[in-house]
Amino acid sequence: WTRRRPPPARCSEILEHAIRNSRLIVATPAPTITIKAITAAYTEFEIAFFVEDLGSTVKAQNELFDFIYRHLAAADIDLAAPPNGSSVGSSRKRRTGAERLLELVAIFATFTPAERAAIAAKLEERSYDEGETVIEPGVVPQSLFIVGSGVLSFTRLEIEGDIELLRLGPGDHFGEIGLLTGAAATARFSALIPSTVYQLAKADLTPILESRPQVAKELCRALARLQTAGRLALIHARP
């Protein structure tokens, strides 16, 4: 199996998705992606962006590096190898998109490749157009939702109007509130750009939680982080 480098336009598209994943990077002035060089070994890009205040520049840059890594990994695009080195995926076994995705999901970090492959086979994939709703407020999630590609926006309707609380990218998951507490979603999850979302049904997740208690603990922590981040974003959004 010989890997072929994706065309620069495809890589630029993925980098744009990573930029959209960040709430720290402002839309105006618009970020720019410039192709600086194309060689036999790699394509070099330069990204320029702006933030609301200089104090968040380093945080935005570090966050963007993480988003770039995850968006490229989900798209099965390898970072260039160092000089005289071998490509990260040159001898890697071919995997499905769902298997690649699960490698990015923290709650499955301790699972073996075979265990992740078994879970991947149970995932249901669905695509969403820009602006399409994944979960409405008031709906009790019956699955664990995992972002496969694209970016989702997590918004809540307040007196001031719709307020964006978070953005989710490849490897991020949600739906824990319904699975763990039986409570309904308190905000809307919708596609900020065309996105793919995988669902792991409650019936398939329950045996995992029973056999791996640590996964249940990680889901609880993830839910707490999501709720805390949402509250902080809401406070920041209000004058």
Features:
239 residues; Jelly Rolls; four-stranded antiparallel β-sheet; 23% strand
Protein architecture, described:
This protein is α+β, with helices and mostly antiparallel strands and 239 residues long. It folds into 2 domains: 8-74, no CATH class; 97-237, Jelly Rolls, CATH 2.60.120. The protein has 7 helices and 10 strands. The chain has helices at 8-20, 57-74, 97-102, 113-120, 176-181, 202-211, 213-237; strands spanning 32-38, 43-48, 124-128, 133-135, 143-149, 152-158, 161-168, 173-174, 188-191, 195-201. It has a 4-stranded antiparallel sheet. A 4-stranded antiparallel sheet has the order 4-9-6-7, with helices on one face. A two-stranded antiparallel sheet has the order 1-2. A hairpin with a 2-residue loop joins strand 6 and strand 7. Helix 1 packs across helix 2 (57-74) and helix 6 (202-211) crosses helix 7.
Give a concise summary.
This protein has helices spanning 8-20, 57-74, 97-102, 113-120, 176-181, 202-211, 213-237, and strands at residues 32-38, 43-48, 124-128, 133-135, 143-149, 152-158, 161-168, 173-174, 188-191, 195-201. With 239 residues, it is of the alpha+beta class.
Q: Helix amount, in percent?
A: 25-40%
Largest β-sheet summary:
4 strands, antiparallel
CATH level 1 class label of the largest domain: Mainly Beta
Question: What is the CA-CA span between the terminal residues?
Answer: 56 Å
CATH topology of the largest domain: Jelly Rolls
Radius of gyration: 19 Å
Number of domains: 2
Q: Report low-confidence residues grouped into runs of 5 or more.
A: none
The tally of beta strands, per DSSP, is 10
SSE string, helices as H and strands as E: HEEHHHEEEEEEHEEHH
Average pLDDT works out at 87
What's the tally of helices? 7
Major beta sheet, strand line-up: 3-10-5-8
Shape: globular
Strand content range: 15-25%
Fourth CATH level, the homologous superfamily of the largest domain: Jelly Rolls
CATH architecture grouping of the largest domain = Sandwich
Which structural class best describes the helix and strand composition? alpha+beta
